[in-house]
UniProtKB/TrEMBL annotation:
PROSITE patterns: ARM_REPEAT. Keywords: Ubl conjugation pathway. It comes from Ananas comosus var. bracteatus. Residues 379-565 form the U-box domain. ARM repeats lie at residues 406-448. This is U-box domain-containing protein. The lineage of its organism: Eukaryota, Viridiplantae, Streptophyta, Embryophyta, Tracheophyta.
Amino acid sequence: MENDVAETVHVPQSSSDVKVHGSICCELRKILDRIASILPAMESARPGSSLGIHALCSLNSSVEKGKLIIQHCSECSKLYLALTGEAILLRCERIKSSLNQSLSQIQNMVPPLLAAQGSNQDLSAMARVVLETCRHDYLRDAKFIIDSTEEGAGKAILELLQRNNSTEELELEAFQIATSKLNLTTPKALLIERRSIKKLQEKICGTDSKKERILKFLLYLLKKYGKHNMLDAGGHKEKFPRIKSTIGLKEMEISKGSSSPLFPWSADYQKYKSFSKFEYDMFLRFFNTLSELTLELQDKAVDNVKVLLEGDEETCYAMLSNGFMDALICFLTNSHEKSNVKALKTGAQLFLAFLSNSRVEILSLSEGAFPLLATLVNSQIRAESLLILERLSHQLSCLSHIVSSGIAPSIIKLLSSEDTKLVERATKILSEISSHSDIKPLLISSNCISTLASVLKDGRLSEYCLKILHNMSDTEEALDLIAKTNGCLASIVEILDIGDRDEQEDAVSILHSVCSHSVENCMLVMKEGVIPALVDISVNGSEEGKETSIKLLRLLRDLRHKECFDSSCNQPVPISEVERSPMDHSAKKQSISKSSRFFSRKMRFFSKPRSLTLF
C-alpha cells in the first residue's frame, strides 16, 4: 500500500524544497517516515478482520494526505501558502488525529492476534513489532507550529483582503511586508511566484470561486507592485512615497546582495531605463557592447533580458516596431561574416530570450533573416539556430519563409544524426512545416520515412513523427513508402495501443489513407493485427478517432465480401476501383466463391496476432 502512495504523490526529499511552512512539513515528514517504516510489519501481521482492514486503509489514506500537504507546500504560491497557514496547520492536526486513531485500533487488535498465532513465531514477532510501535508516544509529542515570520506575511495579506477600501499606499506596504518576509525580492523569485499562482488558478478553475478571487487578487498585487519590490544594499525595504509606472522589473536590482543597476555597461539603458524607448542604433550598440563582455556577464545579461520581457507584450511589440529584430539580424550577419562565434552565440541567446515570450507574434523579419538562419544551421551555433527555427515554426507568419529559405534539406539530414537533441529539434521543425506542398517532395525523395519509422519506434518523439507522416499521407508516393518501409506500419499500429488520444487520431488517419490506397496495403495493415486496437478506439477514443477507426473497420470488413484481387495478380488495386466495379454473380460465381474463401482465411490469420489478449 505504501508503494502505491509513493507512486501517486511526489514528495520533496528535503525540507529545503518546501517553500513555506518548513517546520510543519518537517514534523509531518517525521511522522510519515515512522509510519512508512512499520507499514510492512502491520500488513504482515494480518489484522484480517473488517475492522483491521479498515484501520490499515485509513492509515494509508492519512499518509497519502500528509504527503499531499508536503507536495502542496513545495509547489504552491508562497503568498497563498502564507495566507492559508492556519488551514494547513488544522489539516495536519486532523491527519495526526486520524493516524493516532488508526494506530490505536490496530494496537487493540494485536493482543488477540498474538494469542491466535500460537507457535507461529514469525507472525508473533511481527505482531509484537506493531504493538511496540503503536505504543510509542511520537504522535502525541508532535507539535505543528506556524513560523512567526510566515505568519506575519499571511497576516499582512489577510488584513488587506478584509479591507473594503484600500489605498495604493496600503496595498504597496502590505505587499512589501509579505514579500520581504517570504524572500520574494528578486525578479526570478517574483517570476516563479507569478507562475505558481497561474498554475494554481488553472488547477482550481471553476471549482472554488473564493479561492479564484484570492488568487486573482494576489496576481493583481504582483503585477502592480512587484516592480517596486526592491531591497537596498543593507537588506532593508526602500520606501516609495509615490508610485511611478515607468519603474518596473526593468529597474529592479537583479543581483542578490548587490545594488548594481541593470546593464550598467549600456549608457543608453541607463538613460532610458527601458528597451521600449530604444531605437535601431541603440539596439545595435547594446548588442556590440554585450558581445565584448566576459561570458559570465553575457549570460547574466541574457537572463535579465529574458526576465524583463517575460509577460511584457507591450514592451516586446514596442521593441519590434523600433527596430530590435532588424538590428539583431544585422548584428548576427556581421558576426557571421567575421566568424565571431562568441558574438553569434550572444546574438542567438538574445533571439531566444525574445522568443521566450510565446504570446508575441513576429509579423515580419528582414529579407535576409531566414537565409541567415539556414546558413547558421550548419555552423558552430547549430543547436541555437535550430531552437530559434523551432520556435519560429510555431508562428504562421514565418512558415512560408522557413520553407522558401531552402533550409529543409539540412533539417531532413539531421534526422539521421547520432545527437538525440538535434534529432528532436529537426523532428519538431519538420512536424510544423511538412504540411507545406513544397516540403513533401523533399521528404519523399530523401527516403526519410525509414528514419522516421525508427524514431517513431523509440517513442519519445512519436507525436511529431506521426504528424509528419500524417501531413505526407495525401500523396500516393508517400503512402507506398509508408506501407512498404520495414517497421513503419508496425510502429504506427503500436501507437494505437499505447499512444494518447491525439497520437491515436493521427495513427488511425494514416492507416485509413494507406488502406484506401490499395488492397495490398490493407493486407499489410491487417497483418499487424490492427483490428482489436481499432475496435477499442472506436469505443473509447476521441470523437475524431472513433469516426476514423469506424471508417477503417468498415473498409476492412467490406473487403471480405468483394473480389479484391486475383490470386495470380500482384499489382495493387485501388479500393475506389473495387467499390465502383459491379459484381456479376452469375458470370463470376465460382471465382467469387474462391476469392471470398481465400480472403476470409487471410482475415482470420492476420487478425490473430498482437492485441487479442485485450479481449
